[in-house]
Prior knowledge:
Blueprint: H1 2-31, H2 33-59, H3 63-88, H4 93-100, H5 105-132
Helix pairs in contact: 1-2, 1-3, 2-5, 3-5
Amino acid sequence: MISGGLLYFATIFMLGFVLGAMRTLWVMPMVGAAPALLLELPVMLLASWLLASRIVRRAHLSLAASAAMGALAFILLMTAEALLALFVFDQCVTSWIAGLMRMPGCIGLAGQVAFGLIPFVAALRFRSTDIRA
C-alpha cells in the first residue's frame, strides 16, 4: 500500500507538473485560468484512473488498503503543492489555501480530492466485477 501510494503520487505529480507548465504557458493565455484547468483535469483524472486501477489490481489491494493508498497519495500531493507554493512561487501557505477556495483553485482541489478517492473506487469496481465472475 505504501509503495503503491508513493508510485501513484510520484507518477501523477510528474504528469501534473508537465501538463501544468503547458497549461500555464500556452493554454491559459488563450482561454483563461479556469477553462485551461477544465481542459487539463480530464487528462489528469484519466491517467489517475488508469494508474490506480493497475496498482490496485496487480497488488490485490483490499478496499481499506486502496483507501489508504489514495489517502497517502493525496497527503503527499497536497504537501508537494504547498511546498511548491511556498518555495517556488513565493506564496505563503495561508494564501495558497485561500486560493483553493476561489476559482480556479476549487476546480483543482476537486480534482485533487478525486485523485485521492480513485484508488478506493477502482478497488470497489474490481471487487464488484470479481463477485460477478
